[in-house]
Amino acid sequence: MTNAHSDDAVDRDPDDDATGVGRNDATAADPGDATESITVYSDYVCPFCYLGRQSLAEYQETREEPLAVDWHPFDLRAGKRKPDGSIDHEVDDGKGDEYYAQARENVRRLQERYGVDMAQEIATDVDSLPAQIVSVHVRETVPEAWYAFDDAVFAALWQDGRDIGDRDVLVDLASNVEGLDADVVDAARQRGVTGVPTFAFDGHAARGAVPPEQLERLVDGA
C-alpha cells in the first residue's frame, strides 16, 4: 500500500516523492495464518514508512481476522546512485531547506498523532539499501523471522538512531532475532543479492528490471 500525496499532505517523504506503509510492532503476533494480505512498498529510511506502521497497527487491532503483509522494497535513492551503488549526494533532486523543514514539521505532527518517540526526524545520510537487501533475503529464506527482523531494522534507525547501512549493525540486529544468525547478512550478498530488485531461481540470480527473455533464461534455462 502506498500513499499518493499533495503539497500539504502529511505523508511526504523527505528524500523522494514516494512513501510506503510499514506494519505493526514486533509485539504483535506474526499473522502466519492470515487469509488476507496488504501489499506494502517501503524504504526503511522513509520516516513516513515507520510512522505509517502505527496507522496499520491501529487498523489491524480493529480486525477480527489477522492481516498479512506482502512487503516489497522500494529504493528511494535509486535515481541518485552511482554505478557502484553508492549514493551521490551531489545530485540535485530539487529538495532544499524549505522542503526538509516541511518534512520535519509533518513528521512531528504524525509523531504526536500516533504517540511515537523518534531519535531523528529525517535520515538523509543513511543508505538503507543494505538493510533492504538483507530483508529480502530473510523473507525468502527464513520467512518466519522476517517480521521480527523488519521491526528491528525500523527500530534501530528511528528509535535508536543507528546506521542500518552499516554491516556490523545489520549483523547485530540479525543476531538478536530468533531463527537468524550473523551469517544471514553475508549470505544475502553471497547469494548474488547486491541490489533490488533481484530475481533468484535455483542458485542463480538476475538483477535489475531485466527483460522477460532474461527471466525466461533464469527460470527455464533457455
Q: With helices defined by DSSP (H or I, 4 residues minimum), what is the helix count? A: 7
Number of strands: 4
| Rg on CA atoms, Å | 18 Å
Poorly predicted segments: 1-12, 16-29
Order of helices and strands: EHEHHHHHEEH
Which overall shape is indicated by the principal axes computed on the Cα atoms? globular
Oligomer designation: single chain
For this structure, what is the CATH homologous superfamily?
A: Glutaredoxin
**Class derived from helix and strand content:** mainly alpha
CATH class assignment: Alpha Beta
Indicate the CATH architecture. 3-Layer(aba) Sandwich
Helix content: 40-55%
Strand content: 5-15%
Give the overall pLDDT as a whole number.
80
Estimate nothing, just give the exact number of structural domains.
1
Largest sheet: 2 strands, parallel
Widest sheet: strand order?
Answer: 1-2
Task: Write the CATH fold name.
Answer: Glutaredoxin
What does this structure look like?
With 222 residues, the chain is mainly alpha-helical. It has a single domain, classed as Glutaredoxin (3-Layer(aba) Sandwich), CATH 3.40.30. The chain is built from seven helices and four strands. The chain has helices at 47-62, 97-114, 129-141, 143-158, 167-175, 183-190, 212-220; strands spanning 36-42, 67-73, 198-201, 204-207. The strands form two sheets. A two-stranded parallel ribbon has the order 1-2. A two-stranded antiparallel ribbon has the order 3-4. A hairpin with a 2-residue loop joins strand 3 and strand 4 (204-207). The longest helix is centred in the middle third of the chain and has 18 residues, at 97-114. The chain is globular and about 55 Å long. Mean pLDDT is 80; it is low at 1-12 and 16-29.
